[in-house]
Write a structure and sequence with these properties.
The chain is α+β, with helices and mostly antiparallel strands and 176 residues long. It has helices at residues 17-24, 42-48, 87-92, 94-100, 120-126, and strands at residues 7-9, 28-39, 55-65, 68-78, 106-117, 133-143, 148-156, 161-163.
């Protein structure tokens, strides 16, 4: 059905873009367009779940597979779990930085998958001139204590995105 060129994104796996690329044998690179620390205000707290007054590091990155921009990612990480991160670290892997340098661990995440209309930033960074929509994945990641550590919005080029998962049907208990 024409799925040969698609990146198989498995929502059941908790893996970074770099890990997806490595699993698929693709050359992975990342461009960091923005990296700033911000203080969460009430409005942003309501949108994300971060506590008002807390500090988060905001990134805008573009991920490329084999030199082609496939994913635009806007991340917000609690400042304490990415303490000291550099642009070079963010270009390699933020998750790897959290685990290897900060000795932290993101354990679980919630993902919300939707189709969103293409915006001007998508056209600029993802080369989706003829597309009307992108695949959008909002991620909330938590540490082992259940504390919110990351909120991200990932926008995938429709040329390569497909979500695949395995589900198990359970028989309904219809009573006696």
């Amino acid at each position: 059905f024409g799925m040969d060129r698609h990146i198989r994104y498995n929502p059941s796996l908790f893996e970074s873009f770099r890990e997806i690329g490595e699993r698929l044998g693709l050359a992975v690179s990342t461009r960091v367009n923005l990296m700033e620390t911000i203080t969460v205000d009430q409005d942003f707290s309501e949108q994300t779940g971060f506590d008002p007054g807390s500090r988060v590091v905001h990134f805008e990155r573009v991920h490329l597979f084999d030199g082609v921009p496939n994913e635009r990612e806007t991340n917000y990480f609690r400042e304490d779990i990415v303490n000291g991160i550099t642009k070079e670290d963010a270009e390699t892997s933020i998750y790897r930085y959290i685990e290897d340098v900060c000795q932290g661990k993101l354990v679980t995440c919630k993902r919300f998958l939707t189709l969103d209309p293409v915006d001007e930033r998508d056209r600029e960074l993802l080369e989706v001139d003829n597309a009307t929509h992108v695949a959008s994945v909002v991620v909330q990641a938590f540490d082992g204590e259940g504390l919110l550590c990351e909120v991200s919005k990932v926008r995938w080029s429709p040329e390569v995105f497909s979500a695949v998962d395995t589900a198990v049907h359970t028989r309904l208990n219809r009573g006696a």
